[in-house]
Amino acid sequence: MSPAIRSLPVTAGLLAATVLLAGCAALGDDSSGNGRRAVASFYPLAWVTEQVAGDGWTVDNLTQPGQEPHDLDLSIAQTAALEQADLVVLEEGFQPAVDAAAETTDADVVDAAAVVDLLPASEDAHDHEHADEGEGEEGHDHGDVDPHFWLDPLLVADLADAVADQLGEVDPDNARAYADNAAGLRAELETLDEEYVAGLASCERTTTVVSHQAFGYLARYGLDFEPIAGLSPDAEPTAADLAHLQELITEDGVTTVFSERLVSPKLAETLADDMGVTTAVLDPIEGLSDDTSGEDYLSLMRENLTELQQANGCA
């Protein structure tokens, strides 16, 4: 083999290494913390991990601001960061690309789906959309459970406890600090839960029309959520689905149809225009956007509470 041919893979390898190093640098900077790194698959998981881990860890969020987490495809750099992490926090079944990459990592893994009690997926008129689209990543099939647990603050607290336990396994010297951080976060989340209980205790109506079936965990506060689309935010409702919603809006005196961030508001806006009602934004908090870059989980949950109170005439 000639020297020119032998040099080709070396050059390609150096180029690939350069890309990997640059990509990993973009994900985070070890100048903060003690060199330990956690990788979380999307915003709520990253937020919890940051709160519990504290300044001693760098926490990378695989889903970039403005990106719909269901649509995540990992880059080479992201895959490398995941494989080199000390801890990975994910929710199995929510982002198949992350699930696949996590199978090859030697890092400790916290699977939110295994440590919190997920609700069963609602068996309603929208479920046929997943069967029509096909199973798996393309149709965002979530199986028999509703993955959006983070809209229940108490379940978020349960995840925080699990993250603290695993951080303590990785870094036993600081296990007490992680446990204390999780306890402090639980106190904040319990306060948030109390605000929801009080804020939605007395409402003129409970029927709440939302863009997709992401808000089922808020139903324990007494609201009835009626989604335009199913668990997949890009699913299309049928004519029968829309007729059902139009009937509900009329009969129950619904004043607001909620759209959400990160996906098109077109369906919600069209339904609201047809029925002569208003639209507002209810954030499923799957990720941050340009509009919410200065917010965090707690502030977004409180904004959602305000929107729900206004839409439902809550005292």
Characterize the structure shown.
The longest helix has 25 residues. The N terminus is likely disordered. 46% of the residues lie in helices and 13% in strands. By secondary structure, the chain is an alpha/beta fold. The strands form three sheets. A four-stranded parallel β-sheet has the order 2-1-3-4, sandwiched between helices. Strands 8-7-9-10 form a four-stranded parallel β-sheet, sandwiched between helices. It has eleven helices and ten strands. The protein folds into two domains: 191 residues, Nitrogenase molybdenum iron protein domain (Rossmann fold), CATH 3.40.50; 117 residues, 3-Layer(aba) Sandwich (Rossmann fold), CATH 3.40.50.1980.
CATH architecture of the largest domain: 3-Layer(aba) Sandwich
Number of helices: 11
Shape verdict: globular
Structural class: alpha/beta
Major sheet size, sense and barrel closure:
4 strands, parallel
Low-confidence stretches: 1-33, 123-140
The percent range for helix content is 40-55%
Mean pLDDT across the residues is 85
CATH superfamily of the largest domain: Nitrogenase molybdenum iron protein domain
- CATH class bucket of the largest domain: Alpha Beta
- Estimate what percentage of residues fall within beta strands: 5-15%
Count the beta strands: 10
Query: The CATH topology of the largest domain is what?
Result: Rossmann fold
Tell me the strand order in the biggest sheet. 2-1-3-4
- The total domain count is 2
Detail the topology: elements first, then pairings.
Elements lengths: L2 H25 L8 E5 L2 H11 L3 E5 L14 H9 L2 E4 L5 H7 L5 E4 H4 L3 E2 L7 H6 L11 E2 L6 H18 L4 H25 L7 E6 L11 E6 L9 H14 L3 E4 L6 H10 L2 E4 L15 H16 L3
Parallel strand pairs: 1-2, 1-3, 3-4, 7-8, 7-9, 9-10
Antiparallel strand pairs: 5-6
Helix pairs in contact: 1-3, 2-7, 7-8, 8-11
